[in-house]
Amino acid sequence: MLTLAADIEVLARFGRALADPIRCRVLLALRKAPTYPADLAEALGISRTRLSNHLACLRDCGLVVTVPDGRRTRYELADERLGHALDDLLAAVVAVEADKTCPDADEKGCC
């Protein structure tokens, strides 16, 4: 069982990961199915370099893992419960007020 301080750190890390729209898109894509970086970059319409930076952040946060697959590396959520948490979070936010924007939306930061 985690301590309150550890719980707060884990939630803050998750929040920082979700603070970037590209990282949100990556997590939402990976909740559907594991995938390869080249395929993910194409699906999201971003460069592989830019995606690589975001995947590194998500990996460092402990939210995604790499799985060797022959000469390629596949990315997936670190735990299937993250996909369920994202679904629940989306449902909760939409239920509260989908038309609101965050005043800090322009600030960027990585975990």
UniProtKB/TrEMBL annotation:
Stored InterPro entries: ArsR-like_HTH (IPR011991), HTH_ArsR_DNA-bd_dom (IPR001845), HTH_Metal-responsive_Reg (IPR052543), WH-like_DNA-bd_sf (IPR036388), WH_DNA-bd_sf (IPR036390)
Domain HTH arsR-type: 3-97
GO biological process, one term: response to cadmium ion
Keyword DNA-binding: yes
Xref: Gene3D superfamilies: Winged helix-like DNA-binding domain superfamily/Winged helix DNA-binding domain
Matches recorded under PROSITE patterns: HTH_ARSR_2
Gene Ontology terms for molecular function: cadmium ion sensor activity; DNA binding; DNA-binding transcription factor activity; lead ion binding
Keywords: Cadmium, DNA-binding, Metal-binding, Transcription, Transcription regulation
Main function: Metal-responsive transcriptional repressor for the cmt operon. Binding of cadmium or lead causes the repressor to dissociate from the DNA.
SUBUNIT field: Homodimer.
Name of the molecule in the record: HTH-type transcriptional regulator CmtR
Organism: Streptomyces pactum
